[in-house]
Amino acid sequence: MIDKTSILHFARNIIDKNPGNVRRAESLVQHLHLSYDIAETVIKNAVRHYPNIPLNLREISAAAGLHDIGRPFQADQTFHELRGARYVEEHGVEEGIAQNDNDNYRLAQMFRPHAFVYEFWHDSACTEKRKEFGPIDPILLLPRTWQEAIVTYADLANKSEERISVQERISGLVKKYTQDPTLAGSGPMGEVTIRAVIAARDRVFSLAQRVEALEAGTLSDREIDRYGFL
Predict the structure, then answer these.
(1) Domain coverage including residue 217
(2) Which of 80, 122, 156, 175 has the fewest CB within 10 Å, making it most exposed?
């Protein structure tokens, strides 16, 4: 399984091979770095409280570190989650991400449903953009398992090289897209982003509370088993 140093090197290579598609390349790499670290911290704390919980530290941390690897492939960032998952599924072995297809498929699914991809997928403004990916079972676009939830949390709980609350991050996104005229007035996709963030807000807050409870050791074994594992 790919380690953190290799993930960051891989990300820089993908960015270099697709110049101009990412506005702030080093910020993206730093975001992936911190996402890896947050996932690693969450898992270590969870395992300390629940020694028998079946969470693979290196695998989930790797998924968190790879979650935005789809961003450099197109300047249009819509469905970067799916683009990145597809790349890992198709090229993961040759890129040295994991040694076999099954591990790469599992890794890709851990980060496929991050951020607001479910809401974007169901927005009518994205109908044409969906055609790139063909039919996808929408259930794969929602974090259902602990692995998926931890990766989603790691992405949303960090900004500007520090861990922050998911509530603070979401509030910042809503403010950013509703008050910044250069974003709010950026055409249909700016409006879609606002709709997606607002629509996802409650489910993301619930996910964050669940992950933080796992990390704090305040869940019962029954509550943990309810969500399942990949």
Answers:
(1) 4-227
(2) 175
